[in-house]
Design goal:
One of its GO terms (molecular function) is oxidoreductase activity, acting on the CH-CH group of donors, NAD or NADP as acceptor. It holds the Pfam family Oxidored_FMN. Belongs to the NADH:flavin oxidoreductase/NADH oxidase family. With 353 residues, this protein is of the alpha/beta class. The protein has a single domain, classed as Alpha-Beta Barrel (TIM Barrel). The protein is 30% helix and 17% strand. It is built from 11 helices and 14 strands. The strands form 4 sheets. It has an 8-stranded parallel barrel with strand order 3-4-5-10-11-12-13-14, surrounded by 4 helices. Helix 1 runs parallel beside helix 2 and helix 7 runs parallel beside helix 8.
Length: 353
């Protein structure tokens, strides 16, 4: 595990170790999409990790899918995030804000405009979603027009600039886990007959246009991109040519010189090996199902430059200190992960001290 504690140069950022906090939805934002008053403390508590990636943050009202998730597209939201970034920097940490447009994984009850969610095609994921009125079926979304796709790309561009104005060290584009960009990549979720659908190249076009727009706005050294090959979350299936799709996508993202690629790895070792060989910049790997004793496995095997963890960081604000001395970890309280009970299950997890 020694390699985990080596400093690392991520673009122009000097990270004090190679442990990354993965983005985790917490559903504690206010009605206007600003983060709550405890968010600065929550993130600063975990600033001993090399890099923090924020919870998914919508780039537009249409990008919201779940109740009480934050945005980064209004002045009030920017101001609230400034308090978070300042607290993290005061604790000698680094923070990227994740830009997450959920696409079809939403419900009118949760969307500020109360319209249907948008997606590449009018195909529902056949799943339920939590709303303030309880669990409901996710309705069939609206298929984006070409003009609306351009508007959505521009929303990513503007929200990336807003994140930098808020003091973030960079942004991570969420292209994974069944959300909008992943829906464009899916063979079953994208049935378009224009330049955004059909072939591997066409299904990857939206992802690449979003990445290019964000890079043009804030520079490649401030931009990461998250993928989850063949993860099937949200019912998205890339099809039999999924490995080839990701080879193409990663090869094209390479040309934009993004500072990192963040891979949610769910067991396709050959895909990880190909991405490691293809991707020229820093690679973060989040390996599902590993034991805590294997947290540095992909570093030790040289499959990754950094590794990210989710719930372990959620439940252990002093995760770095605990790992260094092999101390026992707090268990996550699943009942409070998405419930706003103030400090409970958020900033009240105990440290060793």
């Amino acid at each position: 595990m020694e390699k985990l504690w080596e400093p690392f140069e991520l673009g122009k950022l000097q990270l004090k170790n190679r442990l990354v906090m993965a983005p985790m939805t917490r559903s504690r934002a206010k009605e206007n999409g600003t983060v709550n008053e405890l968010a600065p403390e929550y993130y600063a508590q975990r600033a001993s990790m090399g890099l923090l990636i924020s919870e998914g943050t919508q780039p537009s009202p249409e990008g919201q899918g779940y109740p009480s998730t934050p945005g980064i597209y209004t002045n009030a939201q920017i101001s609230s995030w400034k308090q978070v970034t300042q607290a993290v920097h005061d604790a000698n940490g680094k923070l990227f804000i994740q830009l997450m447009h959920v696409g079809r994984m939403g419900h009118p009850d949760n969307i500020p405009t109360h319209q249907k969610a948008v997606a590449p095609s009018a195909i529902a994921p056949e799943e339920k979603i939590f709303t303030k009125k309880g669990m409901k079926d996710i309705p069939v979304p609206r298929a984006l027009t070409v003009d609306q796709i351009e508007d959505t790309i521009n929303a990513y561009r503007k929200s990336a600039r807003a994140a930098i104005e808020a003091g973030a060290d960079g942004v991570e584009i969420h292209g994974a886990n069944g959300y909008l960009i992943h829906q464009f990549l899916g063979e079953n979720s994208n049935k378009r007959h224009d330049e955004y659908g059909g072939s591997i190249q066409n299904r990857a076009l939206f992802a690449l246009k979003v990445a290019k727009a964000v890079v043009e706005e804030i520079g490649p050294q401030r931009v990461g991109f998250r993928i989850s090959p063949m993860n099937m979350l949200g019912g998205v299936n890339e099809g039999e040519n999924g490995a080839a799709l990701y080879h193409y996508l990663v090869s094209e993202l390479n040309k934009l010189n993004l500072v990192y690629l963040h891979m949610m790895h769910v067991g396709h070792e050959e895909v990880l090996a190909d991405i490691r060989k293809t991707w020229k910049n820093s690679l973060i790997v989040n390996r599902a199902g590993r034991k805590m004793t294997d947290v540095s496995l992909d570093l030790d095997n040289e499959n990754a430059d950094l590794v990210s963890v989710g719930t372990w960081a959620l439940a252990n604000p002093d995760l770095v200190e605990r790992l260094k001395i092999h101390a026992p970890l707090n268990e996550v309280d699943k009942a409070t992960v998405y419930v706003n009970n103030g400090a409970v299950g958020y900033t009240d997890y105990p440290t060793l001290n």
